Amino acid sequence: MRCVFVQFRCTPGKTYEVAEAIYDREVVSELYSTSGEYDLIAKVYIPDDEDVGHYLSGRLFDIPDIVRTLTTMTFKAF
After folding, report:
1. What's the pLDDT tens digit per position in 3-43?
2. What local confidence, expressed as pLDDT, does residue 78 receive?
3. Cα separation of 8 and 34, whole Å?
4. What is the C-alpha separation between 57 and 66, in angstroms, rounded?
5. Which strand (E) or helix (H) includes residue 51?
6. CA distances for 77 relative to 7, 43, 44, 45, 59, angstroms
7. What domains can you pick out in the chain, each with its CATH number?
8. pLDDT at residue 16, rounded to an integer
9. Mind telling me which residue stretches traverse the membrane in this protein (predicted)?
10. What is the pTM of this model?
């Protein structure tokens, strides 16, 4: 499994609805609200045999009221 972090910017006033929709998909291991440019951050484990872009696009990025995302790939921990 590969770990990635995905930040979500939501339509104003829709963050809670987006968060519920993300949880309903049962894809993320952790989900937090954040301050700053993005409203939410999620920790997602991608199966090794899956393409990260296709996996996230097919499971999360079609949720209504997501305005923008930022995906951060992780590498070997120290």
Report:
1. 999 999 999 999 999 999 999 999 999 999 999 999 999 99
2. 77
3. 10
4. 12
5. none
6. 20, 15, 16, 15, 26
7. 2-73 (3.30.70.920)
8. 98
9. none
10. 0.93
